Fold this sequence. Notes:
The chain is of the alpha/beta class. The protein has helices at 2-16, 20-28, 48-51, 85-88, 101-106, 124-137, 149-152, 162-177, 193-197, 205-221, 234-244, 254-278, 300-315, 319-323, 335-338, 344-347, 370-375, 404-416, 444-462, 505-516; strands spanning 71-72, 78-82, 142-146, 181-185, 227-232, 283-290, 293-295, 354-359, 363-366, 385-388, 421-427, 466-473, 492-495, 500-503, 518-519. Bound molecules: beta-D-fucopyranose. The site of beta-D-fucopyranose (FCB) has 12 residues, from loops.
Amino acid sequence: MSCRWQNEIEESRSTLRLTRREFAHSALATGIAAALPASLFSGCTVSNAARTANSAPSVSSAAQFDSSSNIAFPKDFFWGAATAAYQIEGAWNEDGKSESIWDRFAHTPGKIKNGDTGDVACDSYHRFSEDLALLRGMNLNSYRFSISWPRVQSTGSGPANFKGIDYYSRVVDALLEARIRPFVTLYHWDLPQALEDAGGWPARDTASRFGDYVELVARALGDRVSDWMLFNEPLAFTYRGYLEGSYAPGRQSLLDFLRASHTVNRAQSAGFRALKATRPSARVGTAFSMSPCEPATGSEEDLLAAERAHAVTNLWFLEPALKGRYPEALVFTSETAMGIKSGDLDRMRAPLDFIGINLYYRTIASAPGTIERISHAQQWLFPVKMTGGQQGPKTDNGWEVWPQALYDMVMRITRDFNRPQIEITENGCAYNDGPDAGGVIRDTRRIEYHRQYLQALARAIADGADVRGYHAWTLLDNLEWAEGFSQRFGLSYVDFKTQQRTLKESGKWYAKVAAQNRVGPGGSSP
Length: 526
Ligand code: FCB
């Protein structure tokens, strides 16, 4: 592994055409940790709490917010649940749908835990009416779902596949009929395999293909859908798909990651322009993976590392859109390596109407030591080491429960981007509770998780953040990417043998929160 990275360094060094001084500077800089934690994908703020994070005694995450009273949310607040096409739809090769990179990846032995695939998943393609009943049963007024690109445009270019369009059209109509806002993600990671074969996200042309695809969908659904996300978690799919290799398409190349980043940033503005040209009143954003980045100690090095972590984790796809530049906290941005051409930076601008935040946990950042610096190639480029927090309780997949993270992240974005509109596009937890003898799923830990994060969110709103909605991840237990069906994040339990859906106790609790537009202290209150 480290050998591969060393080769990458050499290759990248020559391609990047670094001067000796630049290389010495970058190599001396601190870098990203070896086993990058999941935290890279999801934010970085320097709060007082953060400064003492690792030295403070363990605290209960429940103690972070006043949980003794009922807290009301703004009028017209959107209460929602989120899903993604590949994780729930199944029907992977029906009605003209072509192969996606996730189909190819899942069908390659050893890529997904237990050999699981999304071939059937939750079979939502055939059971959307059951899913709609769950949304209605929870009194939700927003449903975030994604369009599968290879379902609506088989080869990633050319004409629409009308059967695929028809499916989403029916979903949108049914949601509107139920007075639920269709909140549509245009890309949640399932690139048509044909486009990967033509070079994938590292290829410049993929940005134009994405723009054309967005126009096609906007023409088909934009008369009824007004709220859109261009991308879901651009950092997660570029980093994990092209550098780490743990996600489709499974490539492991620093250069591919850098190029994919730049294409996606160009695609973000191409998609934005296409949507606005087709539907001028559309409200357009992206769902970014975010996590507040706290310094491990109060040292100057760790404070700097936390700001760099913030730049990589939270700004790599946001600053290009809003400011037409890459964040400065990276050691350098090589135009050659990233494939940046004259005029690109200006053209990357996309004045997003809202910022979507997907948030699960916080990140602790520190400056790596000398050995780490020399043994990991990305370190000269992303000079920071990141881990998850260790003070709060953990979910069943090992993520720290830390509600303050949501408050910190929302407030930092509010401060740094002049109080933008924010949508919480994902927040949730993996707890694998199943039905008891009576068939009831008593997932009380999930109720507490959402309650505490919502209390944190309510405080951010009270402190001035303009938050329009909250989407629990997720409506249904589903295929959790490379983890297969081993992690259950749903408000509804799915028996994958029968496809029977059962609302968990958390789903019933969330129904009360949505109906009353407030979150309470516990007990019998929502
Ligand atoms: C996010 C993804 C979403 C889901 C959750 C648990 O990173 O956007 O699809 O897998 O994590």
